[in-house]
Design goal:
Largest sheet: 4 strands, antiparallel
Mean pLDDT: 79
Order of helices and strands: HEHEHHHEEEEHH
Number of helices: 7
Low-confidence stretches: 208-222
Radius of gyration: 26 Å
Number of domains: 3
Structural class: alpha+beta
Shape: elongated
Strand order of the largest sheet: 3-4-5-6
Number of strands: 6
Strand content: 5-15%
Distance between the termini: 37 Å
């Protein structure tokens, strides 16, 4: 069951459940507070059942109490191989079987490998971290913002430190040294302001309320 939410985290799971013969229920995206997650689940499934919030519980009761018509699950040797690798704490063979995606894992810094399972795009590293495109973008955005604000803090501190050194040099009559420290302080403060403006101007791009292509196929870099 996929409820209101952002990003595309449930897409691969929904597609896998349906491929293995399971049923997928999706909250009506029109009434969801955040429609991205339901829309993404619908984009990768063929038989998902859309229900308004008030009918979700009744739908679950109906499905678990009725005699369901079973259909053979589609074989998924890659999925089964991946599960065996994860249970054995050895995700490397699965990752290495993919194409290099041109990106680094935001958690461990290792290379990310690109795979397209059905119409679902995923990225995974040899450590076992796995990302959908939107989740990867969200994590990358967080990492960029943390790096920018860390740079701002360091530059602000550099500006204050060199300002103090300039004042100390002036008090000792070292005009040239004071001028160099003063210039360094101005440069640090200016750089901090530039980065601060850049960080403040970053807009979220991962939540789209109306999208025709929830899963853009990100080009793979050789």
């Amino acid at each position: 069951m996929v409820l209101s939410g952002t990003l595309d985290d449930t897409a691969l799971g929904s597609a896998t459940v349906e491929q293995r013969g399971g049923r997928v229920i999706v909250q009506d995206p029109v009434e969801a507070s955040y429609g991205s997650m339901p829309q993404c689940a619908l984009a990768v499934t063929e038989h998902a059942e859309i229900q308004p919030t008030g009918r979700l519980a009744a739908t679950v009761v109906r499905l678990v109490s009725e005699q369901a018509e079973t259909r053979p699950a589609e074989p998924a040797p890659e999925l089964e191989a991946e599960v065996r690798g994860l249970l054995a704490s050895d995700p490397l063979p699965r990752a290495m079987a993919r194409d290099y995606g041109g990106f680094s894992c935001p958690d461990c810094g290792g290379p990310l490998y690109h795979a397209k399972e059905g119409n679902v795009v995923t990225y995974g590293c040899a450590t076992g971290h796995r990302w959908s495109p939107q989740a990867l973008l969200e994590q990358q955005t967080d990492a960029v913002e943390r790096a920018l604000w860390l740079a701002i803090r360091s530059l602000d501190e550099r500006g204050r430190l060199t300002e103090g050194l300039a004042e100390s040099a002036r008090q000792r009559g070292h005009a040239l040294t004071a001028a160099r420290f003063q210039d360094a302080s101005k440069e640090a403060r200016l750089a901090a302001d530039v980065i601060r403006n850049a960080a403040s101007g970053m807009n979220p791009v991962t939540e789209a309320s109306d999208t025709d292509e929830p899963f853009p196929d990100v080009p793979v870099t050789d």
